Input
Amino acid sequence: MKNVKSFAFVHACTLLFGLSALIGNRADSGIMTLIFGRGVFAFLALAAIMLVFVRCSTRARLSDIGRLMLSGALLGLHWICFFNGVKQGGIAVGTLGFACFPAFVTLFEAIIVRQLPSATDGIIIILIISGLLVISHNSAGSAIFSPGLAWGIAAGFTNAIFIIFNRYVRTSATPLESSLWLCAGCTLFSLPGARGLFQSSFEDLGMLMILGIFCTALAFTLLIFGSRDSSAKSVSFIIALEPVYAILLAWILLAQPVNLSTGFGASLIVGAAILSTQFNKQA
Output
């Protein structure tokens, strides 16, 4: 029963991450305002969670906070690319472009450890490139990447940098503390968007609150507690389904169906992401 509950938490987290793509696509606010609103509402919600529900002293040192806030700035850079992708290319194209990040992680790891990618790594990269080419041909009408897909790929690239940074830069902070200071760093990074927050419509403010409180603070919290009784491989497998959840939500809530070509490209990319999580946990 405990594992079922943990899996439900991680699936709910992934669903909320997918919902963030819909909000980014529908909101009229500028990109920096989206990121600032997401960061500040998430920071406030996480601070409230820690004050009310978590009775423990802080573990993060000042140097840890600095590293986490720098990581938060990288997260903000990733969100710039991600929201541009879903705004310019649509939810399916933007999220699937982002889903190419395992290929970049594989390449970055190969550079860092000075080792050629394995045969499995090569298969993963080929699957991702093939999926991107299929989606690109469908979205741009040619083999040239559309702006939305290019932004989505940039989101995958910056997400890979974020992952590698956090893999090699260790801190003594708890997971909730890490999430809190990540959001603080992201908020500072997107400070130019603060003015736009006060000029947003009530509808946009509502969406930004959902984006920050539910799609970020609650999602991070669900991921943290869901990961406690689940293997890292299982969690990675579920998180790799984020584009699937985003596309399904867009279909159900916004009546945006996916054609066969995009669906085929999606299956290649998501399949590669799942293969990547399986292989990396066995290595």
Summary: The mean pLDDT is 85. DSSP finds 13 helices and no strands in the chain.
